[in-house]
Amino acid sequence: MSLVISHHTALWMHCSPKFASSAAVANYIEGPINASVTGEKVNRWYRPALSELTGIPLADLGSVDYLLSRDVARHPSPLSRPHSWCGPLPDRTLLSLGNDIYLSAPKFTFLQLSGRYDLVELSCIAMAMAGWYLPSQGENGLSRHNPVVSIAQLKMPVCDIGKHWGIDKVERATRWALDNSRSPMETSLALLINTPRIRGGYGLVSPILNARIYLSAESRVIYPHRYCEADVSAPDSSLLFEYLGKAFHKEEHRDIRRELALQREGYQLQYVTIRQLLDPPQRNEIMRRYAHSAGDSLEPPTELIVRKRIALLRRLLPDRGLVLEDGGVIQSLPGWALPIAWS
Q: For the chain, how are helix, strand and coil distributed in percent, rounded to 5?
């Protein structure tokens, strides 16, 4: 009998600064395994082994998600949450951690989570996994990690996983998701830009997130770095959209020098704040400028699209009353946020 770590626990192991490097070098297994472990064995033997493996104290480990064969009875407890899987576990979707402990691979983990969240939330999860952050209960509300998977890898072919009810949902959730996001606000702005109008977005050309702009020797005198990264930009555009959040007020002098260097390279910066995105006239003007930079145009919305857009904005942006003067946001964390012990 083996422990197959799944769902939220698998997501946290892939994205946790305490364990991500170990998960990244774990080996795939080729053959089937026996996923019929008992809840008692999980609680008595596997949880202490997992605590030792991750370096997280047993008392802080939380409830562990794991997979069982569908024909095995599930007995959840405060220490562990069993989930069923229909049929044999697919090949090359599990990573071996040793001691009969296996970790669901990133794309298999994402498929498992498709049963827990709607399309908007799944798109946000995909961009966090393919980006550099995860919402966290720790300091600043974010945990940093290297990308654990690409959006292309999450768009798994059906032949890789067999027939499963969540595959269509995964395909739809990743259709407008993008690689390389560094923050929830970059994710929200990108999804607003390229989600189709009928789903509430603006239906514009997909942006590039954190594109590298290499500086000339003259520009490096102004800003002594080899390159800058632009938060959001249209392909082949000289207009760069920069999210102006709380961090700007801490590094204002650095950001001013960076802007001057980019202007010398022929780029223009359009700053975007959370308050602007919450204000319809300002948000529409930002989208109009993005559309123009992409060689596109902004079409007026119908009443149906307006209703869809309001619904999407409520999912992607905080309420006005939760935005602080310094650009910070008081926002409840999603259910997939990294627990503080894993941060």
A: 45, 20, 40
- As to burial, measured by CB atoms within 10 angstroms (0-12 exposed, 13-18 middle, 19+ buried), residue 202 is buried
Nearest to 267 by CA among 237, 231, 301, 299: 237
Q: Distance between CA 83 and CA 98 in Å, rounded?
A: 21
The model's pLDDT over 14-38, given as tens digits with 9 standing for 90+, comes to 999 878 777 767 788 766 666 667 7
User: Would you say 135 and 141 are in contact if contact means Cβ atoms under 8 Å apart?
Assistant: yes
Express each pLDDT in 138-154 by its tens digit: 877 899 999 999 999 99
Confidence (pTM)? 0.92
Pairing of strands 64-69, 80-85: parallel
Are 132 and 6 in contact by the 8 Å Cβ rule? The answer is no
How do the domains of the chain map onto residue ranges?
1-104, 121-343
State whether residue 142 is helix, strand or coil.
Answer: strand
Adjacent-strand bridge partners of 227: 214
